[in-house]
């Protein structure tokens, strides 16, 4: 099952996830086969004479009541020549094929603060809004998370299905992230992360004008035992090696919009490195920001490209720069 990228959700200024635009969909009608002596729930008929669809169904499904047959039709479980039809009075002509799927159609549950960009048997790629946790920690057990919602989503179709964490985005960072749908895919992606991930691009709105149009920031990152803040240690090889590349997309006296590529993926890496060069990410109080220009963290995971763990195919997912990131660069008098 695959989902293509749909319409992009609007940027949220609030840090609380809102209902996403993930639309309910129905399982495709498929001609079933008789296995192990059990009757398939899908039946197919060839029309012999001109007749409207509802009377035709009432005749073929004579063991069901009229309301039950209407419900099957209304839920999109009837197809004519392979196309789902719900109209009672749809005109049937001789030689047309009518397929009836008597199984109840499964509808997707609504998702809050995220949309699904792609889904197959091995991976699921989402666009996460700012404010939604990727996965809960011990102190956040009862909060809505992307992980919890996706687990409910896959179990809606298969009660035994599971979701596996591959990487994370900070709660207040929006953008593209990926989960695995089986342990083999998760292990492969995590064990080959540097080779499998071909592109991981962010956009960052930072405070002040970054003088150097492009550059590379390198340091060793450690976590403070009490505050849990990450920081760059002055001692080489003391901590995790972190490398961040950036280039300026737009800038004025107050803000710079940067394209940021990660060579390594450490916790809070971009946020610490931006603070290190004197240009903290907008809205990032934790790492030195004073601005409230956009009422959210100015960090968005824009592109994720990776080699599919099973097919070997290169998968690339790109999203738009949040409009609110562009507000500081609009001409005075232009409505935001």
Which features does this protein show?
single chain; 336 residues; alpha+beta; eleven-stranded mixed beta sheet; 6 helices; 17 strands; disordered N terminus
Q: Would you give an account of this structure?
A:
The model is unreliable at 1-39 (pLDDT under 50). With 336 residues, the chain is α+β, with helices and mostly antiparallel strands. The chain has helices at 53-60, 66-74, 146-155, 183-191, 193-196, 269-276, and strands at residues 42-46, 51-52, 78-80, 83-84, 91-92, 97-101, 114-119, 123-128, 164-165, 174-180, 197-207, 214-223, 230-233, 240-251, 255-262, 299-307, 314-318. The strands form three sheets. Strands 7, 8, 9, 10, 11, 12, 13, 14, 15, 16 and 17 form an eleven-stranded mixed β-sheet that branches. Helix content is 14%, strand content 29%. It has six helices and 17 strands. The longest helix is centred in the middle third of the chain and has 10 residues, at 146-155. A hairpin with an 8-residue loop joins strand 9 and strand 10.
């Amino acid at each position: 099952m695959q989902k293509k990228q749909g319409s992009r959700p609007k940027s949220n200024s609030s840090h609380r996830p809102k209902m996403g635009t993930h639309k309910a969909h129905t399982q495709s009608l498929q001609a079933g086969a008789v296995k192990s002596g059990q009757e398939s729930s899908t039946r197919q008929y060839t029309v012999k004479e001109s007749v409207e669809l509802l009377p035709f169904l009432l005749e073929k499904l004579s063991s069901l009541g009229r309301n039950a047959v209407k419900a099957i039709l209304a839920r999109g479980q009837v197809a004519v020549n392979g196309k789902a039809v719900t109209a009672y009075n749809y005109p049937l002509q001789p030689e047309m094929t009518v397929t009836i799927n008597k199984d109840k159609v499964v509808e997707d549950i609504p998702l809050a603060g995220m949309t699904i960009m792609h889904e197959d048997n091995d991976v699921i790629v989402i666009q996460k809004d700012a404010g939604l946790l990727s996965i809960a920690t011990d102190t956040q057990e009862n909060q809505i998370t992307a992980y919890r919602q996706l687990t409910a989503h896959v179990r809606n179709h298969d009660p035994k299905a599971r979701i596996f964490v591959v990487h994370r985005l900070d709660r207040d960072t929006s953008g593209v992230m990926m989960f695995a749908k089986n342990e083999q895919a998760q292990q492969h992606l995590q064990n080959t992360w540097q080779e499998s991930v071909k592109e991981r691009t962010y956009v960052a709105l930072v405070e002040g004008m970054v003088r150097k149009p492009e550059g590379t920031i390198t340091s060793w990152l450690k976590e403070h035992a009490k505050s849990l803040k990450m920081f760059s240690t002055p001692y080489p090889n003391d901590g995790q090696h972190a490398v961040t590349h950036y280039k300026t997309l737009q800038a004025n006296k107050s803000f710079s919009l940067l394209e940021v590529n990660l060579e390594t993926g450490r916790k809070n890496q971009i946020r610490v490195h931006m603070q290190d060069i004197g240009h903290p990410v907008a809205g990032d109080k934790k790492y030195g920001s004073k601005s409230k220009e956009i009422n959210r963290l100015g960090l968005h995971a824009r592109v994720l490209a990776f080699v599919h763990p099973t097919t070997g195919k290169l998968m690339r997912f790109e999203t738009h720069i949040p409009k609110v990131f562009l507000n500081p660069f609009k001409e005075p008098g232009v409505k935001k």
